[in-house]
Automatic annotation (TrEMBL):
The keyword Nucleotide-binding applies. GO terms for molecular function: helicase activity. Residues 757-784 form a coiled coil. It comes from Fusarium langsethiae. The keyword Nucleotide-binding applies. Keywords: ATP-binding, Coiled coil, Helicase, Hydrolase, Nucleotide-binding. This is Atp-dependent dna helicase.
Length: 1219
């Protein structure tokens, strides 16, 4: 294997010998292994290199050789360095044994000789199987994404169950294609055994598989009148393989399932149907039946006396009924086929791809009766379950369909009038065209009047999906340029496939120019013509693309080649790697430096300035979420990669940006220093500080660029155009692109502050050195941070001012483009994503009923109660001390540090009953010996270092603690309109010095979560106060946790970790911390409960309890849709008019008599004690009412009744009824 290749394919024809040599010569280094993309492994029996074998008997033992080879192969594969996504394909194969190569007859091959011997029974097939402890010491193989198995030999076969076991070591496997067999026509016991073992090991196949293709073959009967033995289990009357695949296909994440095997209808519908069965993610389900079923029944049976075949329609009827029942429970199904390809073809084909095309077809022989009324009735329900129309077409009307659509204009067609290109020249293009643009190309256009110089028509798509787009002169009908492209083959019958998947223009064709042509057409001019033709006549260009000018700037360049210039740094790009590392360090240090404590607030106000003569409302804020900062820095990383790589290209191979002299000098100096280090690391050690200084200077030079000719002379603006290219070759939509501009602006501001800070520090050092000043004197004499920052900001960090000397810079263009893009974003309605079918909500590919969601929330509550009982060491939460909700007190205005409702003196009588509750449970004074047993599990009497708790008990308790907290998060997050994860994960249960009043409050018999942060807080400085009340069943779990569990767990962790600072957060990183870990920023939200972890929690539990996968984004959309459907009526009929306390209010005359308006009265005068330091009591009561509507909707009944809650029970809102 050549380690210089970007990809490698390994083919092992002599596997053991070659791998042994590779191991001995140390060829299989991590670097070389990282280049592997495909492995082809050929098992040969007996083992190779017998002459050099130390144990020939073992080498003739096929089972031993197989196990030894598999272990050796998987051990090598496990050492391939994992990537972000797996990329390696694996194919295994058994070649016919060498003994069949001896004494071959004329024209006979080893393979044909083997087949003859097996067919006549001279050789009985043998299965190679893995031993019981075959995988001891073998690690998982995360690098493999594709696994293919082929049956090359007919005498030595892979045991099907062994393939399952091999696959089980590949946790990131996404696609398999297996050709397996139980080719037995002599020993039926062996057939049943192999079939059973394969079925029982199917469950260990990784759940990561998205595409499963299996051909499970069987040796056909020797005679057409023979019937194979039954493999049906007598006790259950079901085929074990069918039953196993029935469960296997219901996996979440399995998209495509293709099976050719001897199975029966129980693969779709078992003898005892499971009413809760659902296939949540299956998109393509293709079942191809063999002649015989596992029971021995024959779909088509030869009739010796009569000749021909007798067809058993009842068998196919069973499959038809089962398939209909199954299809109605497949929310994502696009195609379901049950086909018998034998001596006759019969089957059922169901498709949901198009609502305008027939969705159900029954295939059969002319003499086979049509589908029965029973079958049609059950399929009618299945069709309607997918929102499709049910009309029965006679077979005489079912013909090949042409691509037509009532809501599209007619396609341009010029019959045979187009004169094609006579002497064609062509060039590869390979650009991806989005669906809506491909449809425009295919429909073309006709000239409307004599002034229209051009016309366009398209040939195709044909059955293979080929199209030819003809761009012609309208007067002469001469073809000027032709585009050769491909769309999905299904587009021949269904154009909606094009809208969904788009197409590819693979080639461009033009006329060979004559020798005396004034401007001869060449490849570049042909492509430019096609682009301009599409923009001017096909109306491709939209306002956004016209504004940013990406297409013009990148005209004539291969989109994929341009996009690759922004790819992550490759392993051989050593200089770029060090530059990339440097820019990442610079951006991190810039973020750290751009703080009030380091540079002062005035410098931060100044760098935030967008307009020269207008001071910003707020200073620059370096605080962003970690994942947001990672996205922002990734944009700058791509820009730097693009600039460095493009600058190395020849002028005609790169877009037309030009580096200024200062920019060129900076990048040359940076590259020269790095090259010196790479060439001789010992003589020229890498000085990261100096490298970072040059990198920062380069960034500032890129920003400080006067746009004297055009914006695309700037390398940054050019790079931003390339970042607008999608992976499929189209343009990134404006709705998704504007955050890229925000990333450039945010990070640029931080780096300007950082460079200004370094400049001032250098000036202070210079003054100390040259004028012999002390540090304080030098600080006073040096230019201020504000002045240094202001000079840079006014020169190149604002929009162009009205002064006559002002000139535009890249930042001016970025501001204007972002403003225009934001205008489009906020004035363009988002596409519809939610639909309702009764009480079933549909969001994209997610579908479930409201009753299922309700049951999930109740199941989470039950599980949380069980985990809380475990944490409090009781048999059930009924044994816990009661919470007297009617007398629970909480002073919402109390801001004393450390205060919570549990520390309120008025609650002392009932709170003291739970003091040291869990510690008392593990004391040896508990009755019936329970305390003594817990005491022995928890307390380590032999330790004298003060750490009395057993490590295993602490670990087990911590796991139960995490399980409880996950369920509580789900309940608190989903039991109301969803807050942002950063809000919920940052709530505190007691007051803190910097955070102020806690977020967890008790109010009138309910627990309440109050958050003050919202999305625009750092932009506007105004936080909206949001109250979310919990239902009693959840609120008491939270109260018990804070009262009984958390103090004990904090005590345990304090002893174990020698930590004394107890976290005030409900979802902390650590419940206790050491004083050394506490800094000025300790009040900032702790980072263990990140959005990524919350996403995984929601996905895991929704998959488990709802049978669909939810995430943060989808739940936000779904929750808003639920509230709009079921809760809006209550707002209209109650006091909930208006959703913001800042709205204009009609002043109450009573308040006016007191000399102030109603809003001032609510915010300042005579405020209720329970209003605390938050908003007005009226807004709090409105939020309480909304929360209680959610509780009633999900059948959580609080102690209070009546009010606006009465009668709110999933009532359809008026406009839904009208619709």
């Amino acid at each position: 294997m050549d380690h210089h290749l970007s990809q490698a394919q390994l083919k092992f024809y002599d596997p053991e010998t070659r791998l042994n040599v590779a191991e001995l010569q140390d060829y299989l280094t991590p670097l070389r292994l990282s280049y592997i993309r495909y492995v082809w492994y050929d098992f040969e029996f007996p083992a190779h290199n017998l002459a050099a074998s130390t144990n020939p008997e073992e080498d003739y033992d096929d089972q031993l050789v197989f196990n030894r080879s598999v272990r050796q192969l998987l051990e090598v594969l496990s050492r391939i360095p994992p990537r972000e996504a797996p990329v390696v394909g694996l194919e295994i194969f058994i070649t016919p044994p060498k003994k069949f190569a001896l004494r071959l007859l004329r024209n006979e091959t080893k393979r044909s000789r083997e087949r003859t011997e097996v067919l006549f029974g001279n050789v009985i097939p043998a299965y190679v199987e893995l031993f019981k402890d075959w995988d001891v010491g073998i690690s998982e193989i995360p690098a493999v994404t594709y696994f293919r198995v082929e049956p090359g030999s007919q005498s030595i076969l892979f045991s099907p169950s062994s393939i399952n076991r091999i696959a089980s070591k590949m946790p990131r496997l996404s696609k398999v294609e297996w050709w397996l067999t139980d080719e037995e026509n002599i020993d039926s016991t062996a057939e049943t055994s192999q079939r059973t073992m394969f079925s029982r090991t199917l469950e260990i196949v990784p759940t990561s598989i998205r595409s499963f293709v299996l051909s499970y073959l069987r040796q056909p009967p020797r005679s057409a009148v023979d019937r194979p033995n039954s493999t049906v289990t007598p006790s259950t009357h079901e085929d074990i393989l069918s039953r196993s695949f029935y469960s296997f296909t219901q996996r979440i994440g399995l998209d495509d399932f293709y099976l050719l095997a001897r199975v029966d209808s129980t693969i779709l519908l078992p003898q005892k149907p499971e009413h809760d069965a659902i296939w949540p993610s299956i998109r393509l389900y293709h079942l191809e039946l063999k002649e015989h079923l596992p029971s021995g029944e024959c779909i088509a049976q030869w009739q010796p006396g009569k000749g021909g075949y007798a067809y058993d329609q009842k068998i196919m009827d069973r499959f038809a009924i089962a398939a209909a029942t199954c299809a109605s429970r497949m929310p994502r199904i696009e195609e379901l086929n049950i086909i018998h390809h034998g001596r006759t073809q019969m089957g059922i084909c169901f498709s949901t791809r198009s609502k305008d095309e027939p969705c159900l077809e029954f295939v059969g022989q002319p003499d086979v009766p049509e589908a029965s009324e029973e079958i049609l009735a059950i399929w009618k329900d299945a069709v309607k379950a997918h929102g499709l129309r049910w009309d029965i077409l006679p077979s005489s009307e079912v013909k090949t369909r042409t691509m037509t659509s009532s809501n599209k204009p007619e396609r341009a067609s010029f019959n045979d009038s187009v004169e094609p290109i006579q002497v064609p020249l062509s060039a590869e293009w390979g650009i991806r065209v989005p669906g809506h643009e491909m449809i425009k190309l295919i429909y073309g256009f006709t000239p409307r009047d004599m002034d229209d110089r051009w016309m366009c028509c398209t040939d195709g798509p044909d059955k293979e999906g080929n199209v030819r787009v003809r761009m012609c002169r309208s007067w002469s009908s001469m073809e000027n340029v032709a585009l050769i492209g491909q769309v999905p083959a299904e587009a021949y019958n269904n154009e909606k496939v094009i809208e969904r998947e788009g197409g590819v223009i693979s080639k461009i064709v033009w006329e060979k120019p004559q020798n005396d042509a004034y401007e001869p057409m060449d490849e570049k001019r042909a492509k430019a013509f096609a682009v301009n033709f599409s923009k001017a006549w096909m109306k491709y260009a939209n306002a956004w693309l016209e504004r940013v000018g990406w297409a013009d700037h990148l005209q004539g360049f291969d989109p994929e080649a341009m996009r690759q210039l922004t790819d992550p740094v490759g392993e051989e790009e050593h200089v770029l790697q060090l530059i990339h590392d440097s820019i990442m360090r610079v951006m991190l240090q810039a973020r750290i430096t751009a703080t009030r404590s380091t540079v002062g607030s005035q410098a931060l106000f100044e760098v935030q300035r967008k307009e020269v003569d207008k001071k910003p409302r707020r200073p620059f804020d370096n605080r962003v979420e970690d994942d947001t900062w990672a996205r922002y820095t990734a944009v700058w990383s791509k820009l730097i990669c693009y600039i460095y790589r493009a600058e190395a290209l020849e002028d005609d191979k790169k877009p037309g940006f030009k580096l200024t002299k200062q920019q060129g000098d900076r990048i040359d100096a940076l590259e020269a220093m790095i090259q010196e280090h790479i060439q001789d690391p010992e003589a020229n050690p890498l000085d990261e500080d100096e490298i970072d200084q040059l990198t920062l200077q380069l960034v500032i030079a890129l920003l400080d660029h006067r746009l004297t000719i055009g914006e695309y002379r700037s390398a940054i603006v050019s790079g931003l155009a390339v970042l607008g290219i999608r992976k499929d070759g189209g343009w990134v939509d404006v709705m998704d692109y504007t955050p890229i501009y925000s990333a450039v602006i945010k990070v640029a501001r931080a780096m300007v502050v950082y460079q200004s800070y370094q400049e001032r520090q250098a000036e202070v050092a210079r003054l100390q050195r040259e004028k012999d000043l002390d540090e304080e004197e030098a600080e006073e004499e040096a230019a201020s941070m504000f002045r240094i920052v202001r000079e840079k900001v006014q020169r190149f960090m604002t929009v162009t001012s009205k002064e006559t000397y002002a000139e535009p810079t890249p930042m001016d263009w970025i501001y204007e483009a972002r403003t225009y893009g934001m205008y489009i974003r906020f004035n363009t309605p988002a596409g519809g994503t939610v639909d309702w079918d009764g009480d079933r909500i549909k969001y994209r590919k997610t579908r479930f009923r409201m009753s299922q969601l309700t049951e999930m929330l109740h199941a989470l509550t039950r599980e949380a109660r069980e985990h809380l009982a475990t944490l409090t060491m009781v048999d059930g939460v009924d044994q816990l001390p009661r919470i007297p909700w009617s007398v629970v007190e909480d002073d919402h205005s109390e801001d004393r540090v450390g205060y919570s409702f549990l520390s309120d003196e008025r609650n002392h009588e009932w709170v003291k009953k739970g003091n040291d509750w869990v510690m008392n449970q593990i004391s040896d004074t508990q009755p019936h010996g329970q305390g003594q047993a817990r005491h022995e599990v928890w307390i380590d009497k032999e330790r004298n270092d003060g750490k009395i708790f057993q490590a295993r008990a602490v670990q087990s308790y911590g796991q139960a603690f995490n399980r409880f907290m996950e369920r509580m998060f789900m309940l608190m997050y989903m039991m109301s309109q969803p807050g942002r994860v950063t809000e919920i994960s940052g709530i505190r249960h007691r007051n803190t010095m910097n955070g102020g009043v806690r977020n967890v409050l008790a109010h009138n018999g309910m627990m309440c979560i109050v958050t003050l942060y919202h999305k625009g807080f750092r932009l506007t400085g105004q936080a909206k106060v949001i109250h979310r009340y919990l239902p009693r069943a959840v609120g008491e779990l939270l109260a018990w946790y804070l009262w009984l569990v958390l103090p004990f767990w904090q005590q345990v962790q304090a002893i174990v970790k020698d930590a004394v600072i107890r976290s005030p957060f409900v979802w902390p990183d650590e419940v206790v911390r050491h004083p050394d870990d506490i800094g000025f920023q300790s009040w900032v939200q702790e980072r263990k409960w990140t959005s990524d972890r919350v996403r995984r929690i929601i996905q895991r539990h929704s998959r488990r309890l709802l049978s669909v996968v939810l995430n943060i984004s989808s739940w936000r959309q779904i929750a808003i849709a639920i509230a709009r459907r079921y809760l809006n009526g209550a707002f209209k009929e109650s006091t909930l008019d208006g959703d913001d306390e800042d709205d204009d209010l009609d002043d109450n005359p009573v308040d006016l008599q007191a000399g102030h308006g109603t809003h001032v009265a609510g915010m300042v005068y005579a405020r209720d004690l329970q209003q605390g330091l938050f908003s007005t009591a009226s807004m709090r009561d409105k939020f309480r009412a909304v929360s209680r509507q959610w509780h009633r909707l999900f059948e959580f009944h609080d102690s209070e009744e009546g009010g606006v809650m009465a009668g709110i029970r999933r009532k359809r809102v008026p406009y839904d009824t009208e619709r």
